[in-house]
Design brief:
With 348 residues, the protein is an all-alpha fold. It has two domains: 110 residues, no CATH class; 194 residues, no CATH class. A two-stranded antiparallel ribbon has the order 1-2. The relative contact order is 0.07. It is 59% helix and 1% strand. The longest helix has 21 residues.
Length: 348
């Protein structure tokens, strides 16, 4: 709606009014805010949109801008370019806020306030408390570790987490808890204007990590339905979780169990009707049973999957983490974390 009117809005005039709203005396600020609101309202904007609108249109820029090729690693040694890069990133976030205002409003309404979105949950506090005895503070410039690990929970850390809540013993139950943490992460990311930081506490992040491993390979599938759920999870992760051996073990075990229960033809028993063979269309399943590669990176899972997809290509392997992060819409820190997790999973 707002985009239909943007070209008719006098942005030059708005920028001058907003300068008074930010830097004038108290009386000038109030009058300027009223004038700004009156100016943007007919075009579908609110007063809260004005800073983002001016920022995305380049009216608040006062630092060097990136070239057509973007910022390079060498720019980062220049303080002016560091500020310019931060400004460029904020412009991207401002544009994201403009496009996703409804999402942000929904999350804030559901939690009641922005502070409530980021308030540590009872589960996070409990998980953090039980892993605290394993924490070793890192030296200057180094991260803390827990039982010698930072990215993945050790066996002892896992046992401590299970003392708060037992690990799920079925794949569907593990999926349900995994999606709970994914949802919390997404809500916080939305409230943070798509900042793409690590939004879970350390204990919750370890719990989330271990749940992924349980779904990927550790919990034994009870039936074909569980195998399908596991395979869909692996496909949706696009390389983060890809233990095909677990799928093969499930199928071999279930096949052996089926054969052991099959009646002996010599006994005269009539085997049950297994139905007609599936057609090529049926074997592929309906739309709901196929995993579609994420083209719209609107969740944390999809954005992480896009990082994995890029890093698994020859071109992506040669790209810097900053380039990968920009393409997938995540922070360079998040891209580095995903790359390290991929390396851990790739170890024999």
């Amino acid at each position: 709606m707002a985009g239909q009117h943007k070209n008719k809005l006098n942005l030059d005039r708005l920028a001058k009014i907003w300068a008074l709203a930010e830097r004038g005396d108290a009386g000038e600020q109030a009058a300027a805010r009223n004038r700004a609101e009156a100016l943007v309202k007919p075009h579908g904007y609110t007063l809260a949109d004005v800073p983002d609108l001016l920022l995305t249109e380049g009216y608040l820029d006062d630092e060097p801008q990136p070239s057509a090729g973007g910022f390079t690693f060498y720019d980062m040694s220049n303080p002016a370019h560091q500020r310019a890069y931060a400004r460029a990133e904020e412009k991207k976030r401002a544009a994201w806020r403009m496009a996703n205002r409804a999402k942000m409003d929904e999350v804030l309404a559901r939690y009641g306030s922005e502070e409530a979105v980021f308030e540590p949950t009872a589960e996070e506090q409990a998980y953090d408390a039980v892993i605290e005895p394993f924490r070793k503070a890192g030296g200057p410039g180094k991260c803390d570790t827990w039982d010698g690990e930072h990215f993945s929970p050790s066996v002892r850390v896992r046992a401590a987490l299970a003392s708060v809540k037992p690990w799920p013993d079925t794949i569907p139950d593990a999926i349900a808890e995994y999606e709970y943490w994914e949802k919390l992460y997404d809500d916080r990311n939305i409230a943070d204007s798509n900042g793409q930081h690590n939004y879970l506490s350390q204990g919750a992040d370890f719990r989330h990590w271990a749940l992924g491993d349980l779904i990927n390979k550790e919990i034994e599938a009870r039936n074909i339905s569980d195998v399908i759920i596991r395979l869909r999870f692996q496909e949706a992760s696009q390389g983060t979780y890809n233990d095909s051996d677990a799928i093969l073990r499930d199928l071999e075990r279930l096949h052996a169990s089926e054969n052991s229960q099959r009646p002996d033809p010599a006994s005269g028993d009539i085997p049950p009707d297994l139905g007609s063979p599936a057609t090529s269309t049926e074997s592929q399943g309906g739309p709901e049973s196929r995993v579609t590669p994420p083209s719209n990176l609107d969740t944390a899972t999809k954005r992480r999957a896009e990082v994995v997809r890029i890093l698994n290509t020859p071109e992506g392997a040669r790209m810097s983490l900053r380039q990968v992060a920009r393409m997938a819409g995540v922070s360079p820190t998040a891209a580095a974390s995903i790359k390290k997790k991929m390396a851990i999973h790739a170890r024999p």
